[in-house]
Amino acid sequence: MKQIVVHSPGSPQAMQVEDVPTPQPAADQVLVDVAACGVNFIDTYQRSGVYPVPMPHPLGLEGAGVVREVGADVDFATVGDHVAWAGSRGSYAEQVLLGAQDCYRVPEGVDLTVAAALMLQGLTAHYLSASTFPLGADHTALVHAGAGGVGLLLTQLAVARGARVITTVSTSDKEALSREAGASDVIRYDQFDSVSDELPAAVRSLTDGAGVDVVYDGVGATTFDGSLASLKPRGMLALFGGSSGQVPPFDLQRLSRAGSMYVTRPSMGHYLATAEERSWRAEELFGAVRSGNLNVRIGETFPFDRAGEAHAALEGRRTTGKVVLIP
Ligand SMILES: NC(=O)c1ccc[n+]([C@@H]2O[C@H](COP(=O)([O-])OP(=O)(O)OC[C@H]3O[C@@H](n4cnc5c(N)ncnc54)[C@H](OP(=O)(O)O)[C@@H]3O)[C@@H](O)[C@H]2O)c1
Predict the structure, then answer these.
(1) Distance separating alpha carbons of residues 26 and 60, to the nearest angstrom
(2) 218 alpha carbon to ligand 1 midpoint, in Å?
(3) Is residue 180 part of a domain?
(4) Are residues 252 and 292 in the same domain?
(5) Would residue 101 count as lying in a domain?
(6) What pLDDT is stored for residue 278 in this prediction?
(7) pLDDT below 70 — which residues of the chain?
(8) Do 95 and 122 form a contact (C-beta atoms < 8 A)?
(9) Which residues of 242-273 are buried (b: 16+ CB within 10 A; e: fewer)?
(10) In this structure, are 258 and 274 located in the same domain?
(11) Are 153 and 296 in contact (CB under 8 A)?
(12) Nearest CA to ligand 1 atom 5
């Protein structure tokens, strides 16, 4: 089978499509024919060495496909089932192995490419809006990169929970997409000389000087200071990523001076801790897709031999919604 492998950390060109033996499922695993693979920022961090991983490294964590073989003890899937996953190493491949913990049943009526696009960013948007800071009708949230993969899903889930959502984006096309997803106000942070100084002023002018209850910040280095200064007293900054770079070490005294703020750095695995939690989140997401209440935007798809272009586009801020690889 074909698989995308990195032998040493580097640029998008470090990814190579290789022929490797098709793996055999253990007794508690299924072998899946992959229909579509999701591209995520974490893949670029692992490829480039921002998150060090042992080399050679088979890339990819997410996808959807059809069960081809089942191990002797498997009771969570049968041959022919449509399944999706969000945390299986080596997912940029024609076949992957899944255990019960990684395997989500894709319900009828949900296309496999949409399922692949939904899993990792959707589960993230779900845990951020329902658990990290559970949003309700009294809340205003600031979501950075509002036209990104997480951004579009998080905006829709937050609005569905009754919250008001303000987003940031860098282009007018992204602004239109973010408004379509339900943002009440969209801030063009690309037009600021200093995001740290100008973002809080823009947010306060939209909130009668109050600031927001929560900032969901996946941009990191360039936005962190502005995010903190955009909060209400006792507000929460959920720093869930660093698409612009990682946030440097931080003096905790700043939280007191800023207004007794909370900062958390959540990670998806800790919010998928039990089988119940995993099925609750997945069922809500698939249910919302099936009922037409959650739109999963697939911005672009690439074949395996153009995976480098997919990573370059994501890192170069040229994507909207989800980027998908088709084996
Ligand atoms: N903690 C978790 O559980 C978890 C799970 C999933 C994803 N994440 C994180 O969430 C963030 C968003 O992930 P995503 O896959 O949905 O990506 P994305 O938002 O689709 O793409 C990243 C966006 O960040 C913005 N950005 C601002 N400055 C940037 C820069 N210097 N370089 C590149 N992009 C920049 C761009 O939007 P504009 O052009 O509009 O600024 C860009 O489109 C990433 O940091 C990712 O690591 C975390």
Answers:
(1) 21
(2) 5
(3) yes
(4) no
(5) yes
(6) 97
(7) none
(8) no
(9) bbbeebeeeeeeeeeebeebebeebebeebbe
(10) no
(11) yes
(12) 124
In the chain, the number of structural domains is 2
- Residue from 41, 156, 244, 264 to probe ligand 1 pocket by mutation (most atoms less than 8 Å from CB): 41
Domain harbouring 27, CATH code? 3.90.180.10
Residues 257 and 145 in one domain: yes
C-alpha 76 – ligand 1 centre gap (Å): 33
List pocket residues of ligand 1, CB cut-off 6 Å.
40-42, 120-121, 124, 145, 147-151, 169-170, 174, 218-219, 222, 240-244, 266-268, 314-315, 317, 319
In terms of residue numbers, what domain contains 310? Answer: 2-120+269-326
Q: Which two tokens stand for residue 270?
A: 């800790």
SS3 state of residue 143: strand
Q: What percent of the chain has pLDDT over 70?
A: 100
Which residue is associated with the tokens 């692949």? 116
- Confirm whether 132 is domain-assigned: no
Nearest ligand 1 atom to the CA of 42 is: 47
Angstrom distance (rounded) from CA 26 to CA 257: 54
Tens-digit pLDDT profile for residues 8-45: 999 999 999 999 999 999 999 999 999 999 999 999 99
